[in-house]
Write a structure and sequence with these properties.
Chains A, B, C, D: Pfam families: 4HBT. The first copy, chain A, is an alpha+beta fold. Chain A has helices spanning 9-20, 23-28, 59-75, and strands spanning 31-36, 39-45, 83-93, 101-111, 115-126, 129-143. Chain A is built from three helices and six strands, in the order H-H-E-E-H-E-E-E-E. Strand 3 (83-93) of chain C pairs antiparallel with strand 3 of chain D.
Amino acid sequence: MQIGDPVTPQIEARARDSFARQGLMTYLGAEIAEVRAGLVTLRLPYRAELTQQHGFFHAGGTSAIADSAGGYAGFTMFPEGSSVLTVEFKINLISPAQGEFLEATGRVIKTGRTLTICQLDVWGVTGDRRKHVAAGMQTLICLHDTPDAPPA
Amino acid sequence: MQIGDPVTPQIEARARDSFARQGLMTYLGAEIAEVRAGLVTLRLPYRAELTQQHGFFHAGGTSAIADSAGGYAGFTMFPEGSSVLTVEFKINLISPAQGEFLEATGRVIKTGRTLTICQLDVWGVTGDRRKHVAAGMQTLICLHDTPDAPPA
Amino acid sequence: MQIGDPVTPQIEARARDSFARQGLMTYLGAEIAEVRAGLVTLRLPYRAELTQQHGFFHAGGTSAIADSAGGYAGFTMFPEGSSVLTVEFKINLISPAQGEFLEATGRVIKTGRTLTICQLDVWGVTGDRRKHVAAGMQTLICLHDTPDAPPA
Amino acid sequence: MQIGDPVTPQIEARARDSFARQGLMTYLGAEIAEVRAGLVTLRLPYRAELTQQHGFFHAGGTSAIADSAGGYAGFTMFPEGSSVLTVEFKINLISPAQGEFLEATGRVIKTGRTLTICQLDVWGVTGDRRKHVAAGMQTLICLHDTPDAPPA
């Protein structure tokens, strides 16, 4: 399996179900645009509730969708019955985060039994225009035999 | 002036006014707990709208308040008429982010004419119990002669 | 000018002269393999003097050439008479750093008047085999009107 | 055991033996100044072989000793028979790295079965004067049942 390949319906459903349990993603208005092997794209439409003091998207929102995009990119490559946590991430905010929506991709650059490393990128999109607004890197940990949901 | 010293009412008002214009902070329910020279503390009460898939605070919320705490810590030391932007930050999520609320501090470790570096820490607080849940570092840029608000 | 384009002989000479003044690069045995616009490649041959405790290249050597590759990638795009300093970098050591030599590339992903952001990558190379051993990101600052050499 | 407590002679010897096998540390001229529980201090005397183009210590040397200080800080807390690898680190170079020697400390801020997080700090020291020149964070992984030496 190569990064960017299609995934099985089971893997896609597992990522979408987990994403749907992230209260913050729903509350911010983020949605999954695409799930591929080791490559997940999220979108976050602009709203005044997501801004910083100059009216751009707040770095916290930009980071939140970058982190989730990377987490689910890693998760597509994890074995059944495992769970994903972010160990750490780093993000450079390279241009003001403006646009009708932000698009964040997480792309696996190395996967291992325990740790997975992702590249994170965020674009501000308005009509046909895409501007690279953030770039980062993320370290994920795979928790084997750990359900990806809270205890019932 | 030492890090942690009291600030003038003008500096405190400038930080609080700017924070109040961050749509995301209001929407998440974050508030400023304390403004000191180069040291700002924010709080974020727990809500289901802030969670990740296991029911803990989402790293995006943890990061958002860490980033704002650092940004305003730097801003207290910036000259009148300037504005603050985050260049980049890095955060390690060292324990599951649980508690009645999160408390984030940004603490300036180096300030310069252009760049300011902050230490970021987040605790999960329940009653008397405080657990260190995240630690990070942040680089800020001071935009001189740039109003800290959107054009009217 | 696009990233990866050829540079003028003047720009190449400026980068190579500055590199030659980095005592550490000479001492480690690193050399410039290629200078392109916003894209610089360095090589570091294996020696026992560069190892960590398991006999792999030490993360310090891997980081040193990644940092210099990024710094000179940025420097190719800076105006005449300016100088480059690293503000910060982050590096993930994704595989044991082994090989006949390491090859590090710095690639500019955003350039601005003050700050420039680079992607850093390091490969371990043995014969035809290249293994990705480290990936990072770097923030550089351009010091305008500052000679890139110590005071005489 | 608290961070900064004295260590047993066995733990100190284990750290010093491993450090002595790091070819790079010897080659750069670095030495261990102190080993405490989760807190290790290294020193690196100034030499022209360690410089960048302005004559300061190169960020690669600063990073190398910060990385080793953190690695051995973590290693003091690891079980017998295990080994340490750096997963990633991030460093801000907050002032020009000048002085008779650099002093780097690694301090554990969270230790777990698999991952350990350290704070990294480097000072430039000249006589009685100490200047904070770099600050960073590091993620380490503990390889259980893995000898801390190359295969014989």
